[in-house]
Write a structure and sequence with these properties.
It is elongated and about 140 Å long. The protein has 48 helices and 5 strands. Among the domains are: 191 residues, Rossmann fold; 60 residues; 70 residues; 93 residues, no CATH class; 103 residues, Serine Threonine Protein Phosphatase 5, Tetratricopeptide repeat; 63 residues, Winged helix-like DNA-binding domain superfamily/Winged helix DNA-binding domain (Arc Repressor Mutant, subunit A, Orthogonal Bundle). Helix content is 65%, strand content 3%. Helix 37 runs antiparallel to helix 38. With 927 residues, the protein is mainly α. It holds the Pfam family AAA_16. This is HTH luxR-type domain-containing protein.
């Protein structure tokens, strides 16, 4: 305990030496509570004993402040007596009698001449005795010594200047003395002989740790212990004792040391010894916890003490290392201080702190934390709680946000306010677990029927009801929205939600007219983004448009992820996907997934993962689609998905089928799905996925039944969306498996008439199905056209299937060289896509021996091209037009045409369609 106290110990030895030489003095050992004053005083007493001093000791006590001559009474046992006064018992009687007389006349230091005689006699005896043996009078806790004893002590001190008497006192700077005037006068007599005990530095704490642990501690441990103790010797020693008892130091993930029982017990005893003002300031500082940093005025207002007293106390606590930047050194210290208070007092403190911070304009979250700790929400706090909840939800702290909303709900002023808070609770809980949050829907339905739910609340409730498959109730809630209840912005959002309902659950609002724009106006000039999205969704069955794509991108740019924007985001991504702007959709999905992670919103993450899975499947990456779909299903429970479980489930089944994992797909189909799913688009996806599983397993008739069920559903909805469920194409493949080419051709040709003229993934898939129904000689042209479209739209898996069909047709027509190259390319693409089923099917057709010799000639041909010609050949093989190549390479169209002429001659090909077959996998990123 004498680390960094060598200077003070040396000063004690100097004082003893000066006293022996006949220089009497007063030595004051000062410092905060628990700074080691008593330990230093004991060390001085030990040195004095070894040096042959007579020692008289006494200690002030809080409980004896009002007991006259309490300290003098303690001295009696140690006083050296002369021959004139050999009777200790008689002396004790005289002191006791003087104390009693003084107790009856408070305020008088010398109530009668007897005490004066006693003082003079005792002082003379001490001075005489000191001539033979030097004397040390040691007094601990001087601030608690009763006034009459202080007066007696001063009487003696004024007479020891040339005596061999040393008076050593230990006094704290955080406790109000029993008599401030006498106390100050005594310390003035010690001028020039003060030993201040400051907090330990980091070096000192390190020395104590090294001594206790038997080895040099790491810098991180020293730093953590210094911060946790504030350098206070008592807290440092108890902290080290806790570490030793725990079997060694352990730092948590924040790099902090965890104190134990000795630390907290010492701190509690410390608080018990403090005066009321100090306890109040400590409690206020512990309550604020440094958030925000509290100054003396704020602490004084919270503690309800005088500002000047608070300033003095705070300065002393800071010098003692017990408060830094307005906070106690460790969470355990803060809790120990608060544990000393009755629960009702802590609650009252939190309420006062919340109101104080609110009036000071503090951050709403700081106000809300105190209200949450108090468990009450006064009327003035409603606005602050609302802002705090928004901040917590934005930061992903859902649990405290829900707790605040419940607090606000319990303190709501009326039914309408409670209804609005129920909606907020639904939205907050929905982020984590829709199924668990669904228990609020029955309450909110009752509130809505009672007319106590506003339009914005009805929107939220309707969306949640629809998600969980309670579609009839969702329509009922929406029907309750009147125009008078809504502003223009909310009306736009309602139109968007209505359009989304019509898109996802087409049969639900079949009697309602779609949200159409006035004649002559395009989506670019609609009043708002939600209006434009609604219009695009309503007209999506007619085919995607560039204006719709633009609206979707604008919506994503202007819609930060939140519960309110989720419908707009889902609609925008859906539009991009069905317009085959998959790269753009993928970039936005990844960005939004990152945001959902920071918001700690599993339900949002689940929806975005399902979208990511669909994009991966549409771009021919079934392995990635499988991983994302599985992650989506794992993010929330099957109950929380509701009917929408058909979305990730269908993608996962199709991914398994594409990879030849039929057993895994079959197990997924064994699990029950909600009946309400078949009233939604997700039901179409599920039927298509199940039909694909049946078709891959050789059950063509069962597959055809599912595909025609898709037809029945869409017909009942009076809606045809081949970009979602191209049932005609799927049914055509089933008919071909059943050896019914005429039916297959009729379906394929019918599908072509339903599609817009622009190239699309569905058009390519339809051409591939049609190729299976026409005479052999006509197949290659249809399949090459399909392959060109697929190269442009990026569906590598469907391209691999198309090339496999093309290779088979070429082989049947006797064009073995082209067939080998085409099959080789299909095989490589299937490998890139991890489409194991297709790869296994093509493996027998891959002839490595023939490929080796041919590959050498193809490699030589490719090597004969210049760098510029190779770049043009690559882009041409990918399906780029001459103008697109010219733009990409920053050359003229004429230059591209010249390069192509030379490329055809060197590679011995007649047209650009043969470039891919000729060069095959040697051209990177062909797909």
């Amino acid at each position: 305990m004498f680390v960094e106290r060598q200077e003070q110990l040396a000063a004690c030895d100097d004082a003893l030496a000066a006293c022996r030489a006949g220089e009497g003095r007063v030595l004051a050992i000062t410092g905060s509570l628990a700074s080691g004053k008593s330990t230093m005083l004991r060390a001085l007493v030990d040195h004095a004993h070894r040096a042959g001093y007579a020692v008289v000791r006494g200690t002030g006590a809080r409980t004896e402040r009002e007991l006259p001559l309490s300290l003098v009474n303690q001295f009696c046992a140690d006083l050296p007596f002369s021959a004139e006064r050999p009777d200790l018992a008689a002396l004790m009687r005289e002191v006791h009698g003087a104390a009693l007389r003084h107790g009856h006349t408070p305020g008088q230091m010398i109530p009668d001449p007897l005490l004066g005689t006693l003082l003079a006699t005792a002082a003379a005896a001490l001075l005489t005795g000191a001539e033979h043996t030097p004397l040390l009078i040691a007094i601990d806790d001087l601030h608690h010594v009763d006034p009459l004893s202080l007066h007696c002590l001063l009487y003696l001190i004024r007479r020891i200047r040339h005596a061999r008497i040393l008076v050593a006192v230990a006094c704290g700077d955080l406790v109000e003395p029993s008599d401030p005037q006498l106390y100050a006068e005594l310390l003035e007599l010690a001028a020039g002989h003060h030993l201040a005990l400051p907090p330990l530095t980091r070096r000192g704490v390190g020395e104590l740790l090294a001594d206790a642990l038997g080895e040099r501690p790491g810098e991180s441990l020293v730093r953590a212990c210094t911060e946790a103790s504030g350098g206070n010797p008592l807290l440092t020693s108890t902290l080290i004792a806790d570490l030793r008892d725990a079997g060694g130091p352990h730092l948590d993930h924040d790099g902090q040391v965890q104190p134990g029982r000795a630390y907290t017990t010492a701190l509690r005893r410390y608080v018990e010894r403090c005066d009321p003002v100090l306890r109040k300031i400590l409690a206020a500082a512990a309550l604020f916890d440094g958030t925000p940093p509290a100054d003396a005025l704020t602490l004084a207002r919270l503690a309800e003490v005088d500002t000047a007293a608070a300033s003095r106390t705070l300065a002393a606590l800071q010098s003692a290392g017990l408060i830094s930047d307005g906070r106690l050194p460790h969470a355990a210290a803060r809790q120990a201080v608060l544990d000393q208070l009755p629960p009702a007092t802590v609650t009252d403190l939190h309420l006062r702190a919340a109101r104080l911070l609110y009036e000071q304009g503090a951050a709403p979250l700081a106000v809300a934390r105190h209200l949450l700790a108090a468990g009450r929400a006064p009327g003035w706090a409603a606005a602050a709680l609302g802002v705090a909840v928004d901040g917590l939800l934005a930061a992903g702290d859902t649990a405290p946000a829900v707790a605040l909303l419940r607090l606000a709900h319990d303190g709501a002023a009326d039914d309408r306010q409670r209804a609005a808070l129920k909606v907020d609770l639904l939205r907050a809980e929905w982020r984590g677990d829709p199924a668990a949050a669904g228990h609020r829907l029955d309450q909110l339905m009752a509130v809505a029927r009672a007319g106590q739910l506003n339009a914005a609340g009805r929107m939220v409730v309707a969306h949640c009801l629809l998600w969980l498959g309670r579609s009839v109730e969702a329509v009922e809630v929406l029907d309750g929205i009147t125009r008078a209840d809504t502003d223009a912005v909310l009306r736009s959002e309602i139109r968007l939600l209505t359009a989304w309902i019509r898109f996802t659950t087409p049969g639900l609002l079949r009697d309602e007219a779609p949200t159409l724009l006035p004649a002559g106006r395009s989506t670019e000039v609609t009043a708002s983004i939600p209006d434009a999205l609604a219009h695009t969704l309503d007209t999506l069955h007619k085919g995607p448009t560039s204006a719709g794509v633009l609206v979707a991108e604008q919506a994503l740019q202007r819609s930060p992820l939140s519960g309110r924007t989720l419908t707009a985001i889902a609609a925008a991504l859906t539009i991009l996907i069905h317009a085959e702007h998959l790269e753009t959709a993928s970039l936005w999905t990844e960005r939004l997934l990152s945001q959902a992670g920071t918001h700690a919103a599993p339900s949002w993450q689940a929806q975005l993962l399902a979208i990511r899975a669909e994009i991966a499947l549409r771009t021919g990456r079934p392995a990635e689609a499988e991983r994302s779909a599985e992650a989506a299903l794992a993010a929330i429970s099957r109950q929380s998905w509701g009917p929408a479980i058909g979305y990730p489930l269908s993608t996962l089944i199709l991914a398994h089928v594409a990879r030849g994992r039929l057993a895994e797909a079959g197990r997924l189909l064994d699990d029950p799905v909600p009946d309400s799913m078949f009233e939604t688009m997700w039901g179409l996806l599920f039927l298509r996925a199940r039909g694909s599983y049946y078709l891959a397993g050789g059950r063509a008739q069962a597959a055809l039944d599912d595909f025609t069920t898709c037809w029945d559903l869409t017909a009942g909805w009076d809606l045809d969306l081949p970009s979602i469920a191209p049932w005609r194409v799927d049914a055509a493949h089933a008919h071909l498996r059943l050896n019914q080419p005429d039916q297959a051709r009729a379906l394929a040709e019918s599908q072509l008439t339903q599609l817009p003229p622009e190239p699309s993934r569905v058009r390519a898939a339809t051409l591939r199905a049609l190729a299976g129904t026409v005479p052999l000689g006509q197949r290659p042209s249809l399949l090459r056209e399909a392959a060109e479209i697929l190269r442009a739209c990026g569906d590598r898996l469907l391209l691999a299937h198309t090339l496999a069909d093309l290779g088979e047709a070429q082989r049947s027509l006797g064009d073995f060289h082209r067939a080998r190259m085409t099959v080789r390319r299909a095989y490589d693409l299937a490998g890139d896509c991890q489409a194991d089923a297709l790869r296994a099917r093509l493996l027998p057709d891959v002839d490595d021996v023939v490929a080796d010799s041919s590959d050498r000639s193809d490699a030589e041909a490719l090597g004969s091209l210049s760098d510029a010609e190779r770049r043009v050949a690559t882009l041409a093989a990918q399906g780029s037009t001459n103008r697109q190549i010219a733009t990409r390479l920053c050359v003229t169209v004429s230059t591209v045409e010249q390069h192509l002429t030379k490329i055809y001659r060197k590679l011995d090909v007649a047209r650009r369609a043969d470039l891919l077959i000729k060069l095959g996998p040697r051209i990177s990123n062909v797909a």
